[in-house]
Amino acid sequence: MKICIMKFGGNTLANKQKLLLAADLIKSRYEVGFIPVIVASANGNLTDVLLDHAYSISANPDRRELDMLVTTGERVSVALLSIALRANGVPSVSLTGSQIGLITTSSHTGADILTLKGDRLKHEIEQGHVPVVAGFQGIGENKEITTLKRGGSDVSAVFLASQLGASHVEMIKDVDGVYSADPNKDQKAQKYEVLDFDEMYKLALNGASVLHPDAVRLAKEKGIEIRIVYYRTGQTGTVIK
After folding, report:
1. Which domain, by its residues, includes 218?
2. Nearest-CA neighbor of 194 among 240, 235, 229, 225?
């Protein structure tokens, strides 16, 4: 089985139209023989909305409760995306980080991934289901729900690729690649067709928001190619390898 890891950013799932586009793109990979494993972020700005609610109630909300709150954002995404896939004829199942056994450190609102425990993902794949996994979250060694650092869904996707034997990760974005500068502000910005891991890591550290630096570092360590894919066309704009 050829595993295809596809990570969808929040802006690519922000409304019904985008959810349906995402389902079509996943189906296109499914129909050519890949087994897609999906990692999804919270829809649009939902995480920020949830945090705003918490901080409107308390100036210093408990970190455990923040994790319980914000992880609902990804659950909304994976459930809706799985519904869209099933309506499109693709068998799928939505799963939280804890359900797949993504074990993290016990730190709240900034945990690190430790390991993948159990065989839930492999079992679903063997059953012919497309797993739609909530990114940015896992379960701590103390059995508590945890979240990773902001942008942690990128890290989740690369980590799952390494565990499932996938050769690459498709990062589905609302931009068509990595540019030398912000193309919305600089008309001379040029798109990179190919970047090596070190070049991308420097760009990420210097503020390029396309990828989380920890994801780039992990991809280099595990030898996982990253492809930046534009959500409207499904075409790869930049390859990091």
Report:
1. 2-240
2. 240
